[in-house]
Amino acid sequence: GPPPLLALRLFCGAGDSENLLLGGARASNSRVSRRPKAMASAHPSQGLPSGMDPSMVDEYASQSKLLQEFVKIPSIGKAWVFTSKDENASRAMVSVSQSDLLANKKRSFLLNTHISKSSSKSVSFQWSPFPVEMSGVSAVVPSPSGKKLLLVRNAEDDDSPTKLEIWGPCQLENEIHVARSVHGSLYADGWFEGISWNQEETLIAYVAEEPPQPKPEFNDSGYKKEGSSQKDFRSWKGQGDIEDSWGETYSNKRIPALFVANISSGEVRALKGIPRSLSAGQVIWAPSSSYSLVFVAWSDDNGFQETPRKLGIKYCYNRPCALYAAADPFKEEADKPSTDSNKGDTAALVKLTADLSSAFFPRFSPDGKYLVFISAKSAVDSGAHNATNSMHKIDWPTDGKLEGSLSVSDVVPTVMSPQDGCFPGMYCSGLLRFPWLSDGRTMILSSAWGSKEVILSINVASGEVSRVSPQDSDYSWNVLALDNNNILAVSSSLVTLPQMYYGFEDSHTDKPCQWDWQEISSPFPKPSDKVSSLLADHKFSVIKIPVSNPSDKLPDGAKLPFEAIFVSGKDSASSPTIVVLHGGPHSVYPSSYSRSLAFLYAQGYNLLVVNYRGSLGFGEEALQSLPGNIGSQDVNDVLTALDFVKKRGLIDASRVAVVGGSHGGFLTTHLIGQ
């Protein structure tokens, strides 16, 4: 049977999903361990770590080998498609990563392919024979035409410069070394990520750490010194004013600021005039305009405290933010807008979304008529760290002059209580750099829909939302890139490895938004026979769980069924079960492939993955029903889901454990304690 569960440490910080707490009746031989190497105290007589006996050695070795087989399976990251004059041919570039468990690092690669399409709506991919490793590369950003490629290499220490490499078709065209006195590392991921080519492919705007602020210097008696370097310090070292950070993953980062690089001359200029109380990110180029740059900025003033300060932002959509416009610092001074605030080297900033508490992921329509963006105003206004998104657009002035109030209109409103099987609202964690079909009005994006990830098309003119990925599939789907009016996507399930697909819109049917999906020949090697067999021996299903005894005080959306995903092998009724709980609490465990969960069920456990009320993907009323009822409503939902599968004879109710990280770890202790 399965091995006994180990009691691992509880980790209540947001985002460390690899640190889990497992509790249950079968936790024999349990001990607390932060890392495997923490078992280094050898048994004096057997030479084994304490808590182990010789009969366990082979079992642990077998588990270790199997874990490494799961971990070395490559993961698909981003993709880019480059069109050509031949509408039946294009090129694509796919980023792939592979983890090295023993070295505790991840290696990244780029794969290139040629795409050939026929009139019969079939497609073939001719992959390059070998990938190219992106060692030391922080970001890969192709230009709009696909003729140039930016590679960012962030400095590894305080004395090294950041490097911006500009590659052409077959050579390195320029390498720009940016000293630490100009700026620090680029923000290559997360909220503040923003690297954007202008349409002429002569300038690159990006977000990087501001340069170090000057620090006070003192003599040996503690008096401030003038005109000396820090090398003159002895026992007194000034640190300067205290600086807040944005919390997890940003604790050692300086304030994000905007810069523009000229790829020919190598000159880098900072965008002046942004107050240090604003943290900039997600910069893009605007159509021809006096204000060439549009970006998002988060304010230190979060509205909760008398003294403004930054709060954690990594999983928090409830931090107020707005869209701003500013001029390109390379423009001549005479071309800049003349306003009272534009004096000296201070650029004029225009706040574009003054009446909204949240605005991010800006994208201009191809014709430049609309500036479309996502808003998490429901999260900001309610205080929930994440909530149902909405989509809005600004009618961009044709003359490029941003005078007076701009017209902001709704595209997709917040969905409060979805009808059965209908669109539950937007839950968007990112947009493609160019998310548009050729009509210039339809955006393609990924979103949560219950316990699944789906691909949506949104007409920004009419507000019509359609589901592009297969309607009858419980698999999760994510868009990777667009090839004119076709879609390159990846699909997977908890028991199926990620597989790429190519989607064509079917114009020969009466059904709206009907798409045909063709599986793409994969360049990845097949997993080992053992892993393949384990995956094939398991199945999953998404189960709707009716709410148990809903209160009359609850809104209608909070009385709707929530969902759980049940993963089982051939003998589920006689196997032990692990209840899996996500963190947040306002996140969701999708049906997509997870190697950590695959490793668990490969050991012989059933999995019951519960997306309790408060999860993303089920409408705003269900989500907002959890705050104020944490530790009771979510606990009852988990127990209701457990009773549901128990009454149907799917599990052995005497052998159940629970696993969760962050809020899931909090729920784990509640479930054990209650």
UniProtKB/TrEMBL annotation:
It catalyses: Cleavage of an N-acetyl or N-formyl amino acid from the N-terminus of a polypeptide. Signal peptide: none annotated. GO terms for cellular component: cytoplasm. It is found in: Cytoplasm. Residues 48-531 form the Acylamino-acid-releasing enzyme N-terminal domain. Its main location: cytoplasm. InterPro entries: AARE_N, AB_hydrolase_fold, Pept_S9_AS, Peptidase_S9_cat. GO terms for biological process: proteolysis. Residues 32-51, 211-238 are annotated as: Disordered. Keywords: Cytoplasm, Hydrolase. Residues 222-235 have a biased composition (Basic and acidic residues). It holds the Pfam family Peptidase_S9. Residues 592-673 form the Peptidase S9 prolyl oligopeptidase catalytic domain. Its EC number is 3.4.19.1. One of its GO terms (molecular function) is serine-type endopeptidase activity. Homotetramer. PANTHER family: ACYLAMINO-ACID-RELEASING ENZYME (PTHR42776:SF4), SERINE PEPTIDASE S9 FAMILY MEMBER (PTHR42776). Belongs to the peptidase S9C family. This is acylaminoacyl-peptidase.
